[in-house]
Amino acid sequence: MFSTMQDVPLTVARMLRHGSTIHATSTVTTWTGDPAAPHRRTFAEIGRRSAQLAHALRDELGVTPRSVVGTLMWNNAEHVEAYCALPAMGAVLHTLNLRLPAHQLRYVIQHADDRVIIVNGSVLPLLAPLLPGLDRVEHIVVSGPGDLSLLAGARARVHAYEELIAGRPTTYDWPQLDERDPAALCYTSGTTGDPKGTVYSHRSIHLHAMQVNMAESMAFTAGDTSLALVPMFHVLSWGMPHAALLSGFNLLLPDRFLQPGHIADMIATERPCHAAAVPTLFQGLLHELAERPRDVSALTTVTIGGSACPEPLMRALDERHGIRVAHAWGMTETSPLGTTSQPPPGLTPEEEWPYRLSQGRFPAGVEARLIGPDGTEMPWDGSSAGELEVRGPWIAGGYWAGAGSTEPERPADRFSPDGWLRTGDVGTITPDGYLRLTDRAKDVIKSGGEWISSVELEGLLMGHPSVREAAVVAVPDERWGERPLACVVPADGEADYAALRDHLGEKLARWQLPEHWTTIEEVPRTSVGKYDKKVLRARYAEGGLTVTTLVPDPRQ
Amino acid sequence: MFSTMQDVPLTVARMLRHGSTIHATSTVTTWTGDPAAPHRRTFAEIGRRSAQLAHALRDELGVTPRSVVGTLMWNNAEHVEAYCALPAMGAVLHTLNLRLPAHQLRYVIQHADDRVIIVNGSVLPLLAPLLPGLDRVEHIVVSGPGDLSLLAGARARVHAYEELIAGRPTTYDWPQLDERDPAALCYTSGTTGDPKGTVYSHRSIHLHAMQVNMAESMAFTAGDTSLALVPMFHVLSWGMPHAALLSGFNLLLPDRFLQPGHIADMIATERPCHAAAVPTLFQGLLHELAERPRDVSALTTVTIGGSACPEPLMRALDERHGIRVAHAWGMTETSPLGTTSQPPPGLTPEEEWPYRLSQGRFPAGVEARLIGPDGTEMPWDGSSAGELEVRGPWIAGGYWAGAGSTEPERPADRFSPDGWLRTGDVGTITPDGYLRLTDRAKDVIKSGGEWISSVELEGLLMGHPSVREAAVVAVPDERWGERPLACVVPADGEADYAALRDHLGEKLARWQLPEHWTTIEEVPRTSVGKYDKKVLRARYAEGGLTVTTLVPDPRQ
C-alpha cells in the first residue's frame, strides 16, 4: 500500500501565491513617523512588487537559485518584499542584524558570501564603513532616502530600489523547489566566539508559520492587525511576515520608529489587536502612556519573547491597560517558536499567574527533553531541573559551515549525539508540559552531581532589604566540582554574609547555600543589559575579588 | 548552500507522543446513553492503551507495517485508540462506513484486503452476514457488548478487545516511518460505480490536523471540548481526533447515540463549546430543543459540512440558541478541509450573511482554480462559474488501485492532466477568495459554451407560489449541446409553463431560460434524500416524460 496524496512541496512561493490572492486586500502598513500619513500596501501589491524585485535581482543583478542576498533593513514593506521574493525565486534571504558590532557584521557578510545587499537609506552610515573590507559584495540596493554620497568610494554597484524594480513584470514564474531547499539565513549574536548561521528551509518556514497562526500560539486570522515590533532581522521576525501570508492578518511595521512615543501613536491610530516585542519596548511604552496617555484599548495581547517579561511589567500592562502578555520562548535555532504560554482552562486570574510567568507549553512541532547533570533524562515533575533539548521540523540540526561546505557544523556543546538541539537553557517541566526556565546552562552551578540555580539564589538575595543587587557565579571546587560564589551589592553599608546565608537557608537546602561571599560595586552587564557573569568569573580567577568563606564544607 | 534544519518526519506516532504527554490530562468522553455515567479516558490513557493495542495486533494477530486493518465502529474511545495505534505502528487504518450498502461494504473490505477488522459489538448484525464472502479476513476484534453468537460460524478468529490488550506493555517503540508512508484509508460512497479508496499519508494527516487547529479554521486549544458528531468513518472524522492530539482539546463522542434527545443531553451535561456535524443532525436538535428545552448555552460554534446548511436552520440556531454555524466544504479526497467560512472583519451581522452562506475561504494548504466550460481558467470575480479544481499536500492525486498495484488510478474525470483534483463541484470565487458552490458538474447544463445552473433555476421555480417542487436537468440539443428541461411538481392543478418562464425571465438572461417543460408527480431522490437527476434524464431518454417545448430556439 502507498499513499495516494498529491506530493506538493511546502514553499514560500506557494505561501506568497496564497497571500496575494486569497488575502489580496490585507495590508502591510509601514510607519512613517507621521500618524496622519502611514504607508499602506496591499498583499496583492506586495505580490506584484515581489515579482518585480525577483525579475530585477535575476535579470539585472545576476541573482540565481541559492545566491545569498543580505538585507540590512528596518521593519517595512520593502523588507517584506525581500522576505517573499528571495526565497520564492530560490535565493536565500540573509537578514543582517543592525545591532551587531561592526566586526561581526563584516564577518557574517563574508561568511554568508553576500554578493548583493539590500539596505535602507537610513542605515547607510552603518554599512558604508564596512565596505572597504567586503570585496565580494557586487551590488548594493538602497531603499528609501539616505545619503548616497556615503557610498561614493564603493567598489559595488549602487541601485535605487524603486528605480530597479519599476516597469518590470508583476508576475514571476517561481521555480519548482524542494521544500528542504534553503530559504533564509540568520546568524546568532553570540556573545562568545563568531556568530553561527542557521539556514531555514522552505519546509521549516511554512510549518513554523502554520504554528504561529494556530489557536494555541498567536491565533491570527484575516482582519487581525499585529504590530511587529520584533525586528525583521531577529529570527525572521518570529515568522510574522510569512504567517501573515498564510492567514491574511495585517502587518503594522514600525520602520525605524521604535521610540515609545511612536509606538504609542501607532497603537492609538492603527489600532492593532496584537503586538510582538521584547520586554524592554513595553517597559518604555508603559512610562510613555503614564506621561502622555493615548487610547491603546485596541491592543489586547502582546507576545513577549527574547527574554522573560518581569512580573511587575506584566501586571502593570494588564491592570492599567488591559493588555495581556503571553510569553513565548525560542531562539534563532528554533525558528523561533519553542513554546507559547496559555494557562490551562478553568483557573481564576490569580491561579493563572504561575502559568503566565512560565515559558508555556511546547507545540506538537517541538519535542522536548530535560537532560540532568549526569546526562540522563529528567522527569517532568515541575521540580527536576535539566538542560532543555529540543527536536522538530523547525529546529536546527547544525550550523552553516560557510561557502563550499557540504555538511553543517555540529559542535558537541550545541547538538547531542542523536541530533537534538542543546538549547543552553536550564529549567523544569510540569507534568502537564509547562516549561519554567531558571538558568542558562553556563550560569548554573554544577555541584556534586546536582545543579544549583544561580538565578534562584539571586532572586532570594535581592528579596533581602540589605541587598541592592546580587549575582551568583560558579567557582571551582576540588571536592564538589563547583560551588556558588555570591557577589553582593549592598543597599548601603556593609553586607552581613552570615545573615544573608541564614535568609537563604529559610528556603533552600543546606548544600545549595553559597559559602563564598564577596561585595562588589555593581554587577557587570553585557551590551544588551544582561548580567555578564563571565566577567565576575574572570575577576575571581585573577584574584581580583576579596572573598570571605563562611563554612569550609557546605555539605557537613 | 543547504538548510541546517533537522529532518524530522511528520508522523502520527509523533502526534500521539505529543498528545499523551503535553496534553496528558485532556479527555476523550464517550457517551453511554446515561447522562450521569459518561465514559472518560485521558489522553495519557489513550496513549498507554494505544501501545497495548499495537502490541496485541503485532504479537497476537500478525499485523505488520502496511497491513490494512478495518474498523467498523461508532465514535468512541476505542476507535480513537485505533486511529492512534494503527498508523503509529506503521499499519493502515481503514475506517469502514456503517451506512454503506452490504455489497459495497463487502467490496471495500475485499478491495483493501482487510485481514483484521475491529468492530463494535453493537454492529455485529451488520458484519456477520457479510463474513461468508470474506475468506481473507483472519481476525475479528469485538469491542463492547454484542451478540457473539452471530459470529458462531465465522472462519476468522474472534477476540474481545479488552481481553486482547489487557496486561500488555503500555509503551511501544513506534517505528521510524517516512512521512509519505500510508496511514489511513477511506472509500468514497460513490452513488455510481464502485467506491474509490483515498489513502492518506502521515504527512497529509499531520498537516491537515494543524490546519484544523488554526485560528481561521476550527481554532481549537487545550480546554475546549468538541462534540464530534461527524462519524469517525467519514473522512477520518474531519481530522478531529488527530487535531486533538496536537492541541489537546477534549473530544466528546456520541458512540451510537445519535438521536436528538441524546445529542441535547450531551450538550447540556458535557457542555462542549463546539460541534462538528452534517446539517440534518442539527435540524433534529432544533426540534428536540423546541419540545424539550435544555441548557445548550455552552455550545457557541458548529462546523457544518457534508452539504450546505439551509439558511433557515442557520438563522434559527443563531437566533434561538446563540449557536453560530460555520460552513466547511470538503470531500473524502480533500482530507476533508477544503474551505472554512469566516466572514471578513468589520461587517454588520446582516452583511455577514452572504459570507456565512458561502462555502468560505481556502486555507493556504489548498490551491484552487475554476475551470470553465471551454477548459480555461475562470477569473475570481464572484460571477464566472467553473468546475473547482484543487491542489495541495492533503489533496488526493489518485485512487488506491488495490492490492499489488504500484500506481494510483487517475481517472480523467477526477484528475486533471497536471495532477489537480477535479472536485465535480461547480461554483464561483469572489476576488477575496470566497467560494460559492452552485451545482454538481454532472448536473450543470452545458449550453453553447456557457453553463446554466440547474440549482439556480430550481430555486427560482420553487420561489413561485404555483410550484411545490422542481428539478431541472440537461437534455441533448443538436445546436447547443445541451438545453434545460424543467420538471415541475405543481402546488395544485396544472402548471402554467409560459407564466413560469416569464417568472424566470425577470431574473435570468433569455438564453438561460428552459424551453422544455414537463410535469412530474414528485422529484425522485437518492437514498440520502438528494435529488436523483439521473433518473429524470433516463426517463426523458426513454420517452417517459410528456414534454412541452415553448420556443423552438432559445437564443432568438
TrEMBL record, chains A, B:
Keywords: Ligase. InterPro entries: AMP-bd_C, AMP-bd_C_sf, AMP-binding_CS, AMP-dep_synth/lig_dom, ANL_N_sf, ATP-dep_AMP-bd_enzyme. GO terms for molecular function: ligase activity, forming carbon-sulfur bonds. It comes from the Bacteria. Pfam families: AMP-binding (PF00501), AMP-binding_C (PF13193). Residues 456-530 form the AMP-binding enzyme C-terminal domain. Residues 38-400 form the AMP-dependent synthetase/ligase domain. Belongs to the ATP-dependent AMP-binding enzyme family. NCBIfam families: PRK06187.1. This is Fatty-acyl-CoA synthase. It comes from Streptomyces harbinensis.
